[in-house]
Specification:
Elements lengths: L1 H11 L6 H23 L5 H10 L3 H13 L3 H11 L2 H15 L1
Helix pairs in contact: 1-2, 1-4, 2-3, 2-4, 3-6
Length: 104
């Protein structure tokens, strides 16, 4: 099923009419890749919420690259992309906010 979703994302990416649908499908696919990486690299933190921070601060190209990993597999470069996005100042602010909200 993910193969169809990724193929659809790639096929529709040039059409403006379905862009919102494509964007949401890509974000969902990317999150399914990011969450396990976050769980492994940031143990003990709320992985789903941190994944949202990563996705929200990723470029469109990064989201599509991460979404493609659902079909091509997670590589060390995939993990590095997630870590790089998580290290950005705006992502760190988001991670701090969600982590603090979980504690409070």
């Amino acid at each position: 099923m993910r193969g169809f979703a990724v193929a659809s994302i790639l096929a529709l990416s040039g059409c403006e009419a379905g862009q919102a649908v494509v964007d949401e499908a890509a974000r969902s696919a990317a999150k399914s890749v990011v969450t396990p990486i976050v769980e492994t690299n940031f143990p003990g933190l709320p992985a789903s919420l941190i994944s949202d921070c990563v996705i929200d601060n990723a470029s469109a190209g990064e989201i599509f690259t991460l979404a493609k990993a659902t079909q091509l597999g997670v590589t060390p470069q995939t993990t590095q992309t997630v870590v790089d996005i998580a290290s950005r100042p705006e992502t760190l602010k988001c991670i701090s906010a969600v982590t603090l909200s979980e504690l409070g």
